[in-house]
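Entry 14. Structure prediction run on the chain below.
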Amino acid sequence: MKWSDYELKARTAWAIITVGILALGGWLLAGCRAGERLESTYHHHHDDEAHEPTAEELAEAKAKAKEKAHELLEEIKQGADFDKLAAENSKCPSAKDGGDLGFFGRGQMAEEFEQAAFGLEVGQISDIVETQFGFHIIKVEEHRTDESGEVVEVRARHILITPESFLPAADEEAAKQAEKPAPPEEQAAEEPEEEAEPKPDPSESPWAAQIPEFPQLLADLRSDTQNVVTTALGQLPWFIVSGTPAQKAKALEELLAATRHKDSEIVAKACEELGRASIPSAGLQRMRELRSHSNPQISAAATSSLANIYTNTNNIAGLVSLLGISKADASAKAAIQLNMMGRKVVPALIEALRTSPEPTQRHAAASVLAMLCAGVSPQQEKFAELALATRHGWQDVKEVLPADLRVLPVFADAVVNDDSAEVREICAQGLGYLGNAWATPALARALSDPVASVRRRAAAALITVPAQQAQPALAKAVRSDSSAAVRRYAAEALGWIGGSSVVPTLIQAAGDSDPEVRRYAAAQLGHMGDRQALEALAALFDDPNEDVRWAAVVAVGKLRDRKAREALVHALDDPSPMVSHAAERGLQKMGIAQRKAEEFEK
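Output returned:
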C-alpha cells in the first residue's frame, strides 16, 4: 500500500521520535521481536559482568516454581476457578484481570507460549508451558480467523509462576574493596617504568627556594593560616595525580583534613580535588556527609566529587544513589554512566524503582531503565516502516539485543500504583518502548489515571503496544477525556487496532472540539478506507483549520466512489493551495486529470 504525503507527515512524527529514542542508547534494536528468548542472548554477552546464582540454586528455584504450577494445574482440573487462581497466584501484571491477556497475534509472545496458545481449542487448558519468564498455564477463550479459516489471533488467560528472583544484590565487600587505595605494589605498577625525571619528595622540593614555607606545607595544613592552606591546595593535586605512592597517600590525608577547615572555599576546593582520585572508604564517607552540608557551595562540590569518584570506579550502587539529585548535575552524570555500563546495572535500578522513598530517584531510575531495556516489537517495526525510517547507518551495530522484559512487571506495577505522577508517566513511556502485549492491561488502567500527563503517555504507549485488549478504555478516552492530547493519542491508537468496530468512535472524534483530535481522527479513518466515514470526512471540508481540511481531503481521496469524487471536486476551490492540491491528487488517482471544478461538473 502506498501512503500519501499527508499520512507520512501526520501519522509518523511519533514513530520517528520513538525510533530516535531507541537509538540513543547506542543501538537500535532493529529486527528483534519483543517475545523472543532473552536469557541466552543476555548471558552470552554479560556472563562476566553480573552476579549469577549457582546452578544448584537455579535448579532448585525452577523446581519449586514448576511444582507450584503443577499444583495449580491439578486444582484447575478438579474444577477450581481459573480466573481466581490467576488473580491470587500469577506473577504477570494481567493477574489483576484474572490473567486475561486479550487478543494477540503471532510474533507477539514468547515462542513457546505462542505455540501452545495457537495449538489449543477454545476453552482448552494447556499443560505446563515453560518460557524464559517462568511456567505458564494457558486457557484459550476465543479465536479470530481470516477468510480461509486460519486462526490469526487468540484471546487467552494465563497463570505465570516465576522462579525465586536471583537479582544480583549489591556486593558490599566488593564495593569496600573498590573504595580502598590500591596496595603499594599495584600503585607502583601504574608508574612509568622509566621516568625522565624522578618526582620530588615534598621535603626536598626544589620549590622550597621559591616558597619558603613549603618544607612546612604538609605539617601546617591543619593550621588556621589561610594563605598556607591555600598554597597547599595549589600543590597537593599534583601529588594525587602524579606523585609517588607515598606522596599520593599523604596528599589524600591532607586534603581530607582540609575538608574540615573553617573556610568554606577551602573545603569546597578540597572536595573538588578529592574527586580526581580513588579515595578510601573514610574519604567517601566524608564526601557523603558533606553532600548534605548547609553551605550550598560545599554541598555541590562534595556531590560533584562523589559523581566523579563513582564514575571513575564504575561503582553501580554509588551511581544509583546519585539518581534524582540535581546538585552539580549529579543525576545526569550518573544516568549517563549507568547507560554506558549496559544491562548489568538493570537489577540495581529495578531495586531503586521498587524501594526508593524518593520519587525523584524512582523517576530517574525508571528513565534509565526505559532506555536500557527498550526493544523493537513487530508493531514498532511497522511503525518505523510507515515513517520511512531506514536502517541506513545501523549496519555497524555489532550487538543487537531484544527488549529486556525483566523490567516489565516493575513498570506495570508502578504505572498503576506509584504515588508520584512523574514516576507513573515515565513507566508508561517505558512500557511503550518494550512493545510487549503483556503491558497492555496496565496501560489500559493508566488511561483512567487522575493526572492527564499520565493518561496521555499511556495512550501514546498503546500505539506501539498491541492494544486490542485496551480498545474499550481507548474508546472511552476518545469520547470523554478532558485532555485533548489524550483524546488525540487514543484516536491514533484505535486506528492502529483497526477493524470496523473502531470506526464509529473515530467518526465521533472527527467532530471533536480540538483541531488536532479532528485531524488525527480523519487520518486514521483514511488509513482504514471505510466508506461509512465518508459523510463525517466530507463535513470536515468546511473546517476552519487548514490541516484538518487537508487530512480529510487526503482520507476521502482513498474512497473510490462517486460521492467521494463529488466531495473532492468541491474541495478544488479551497482557498488553501495545500488542500486544493490534495483534492486534485485524489481525483487524479481516480483517473480524472482536469484542474477546474466546472470541468468535473460537466
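The beta strands are 100-105, 129-131, 134-145, 151-161.
Filed with the rest of this week's runs.
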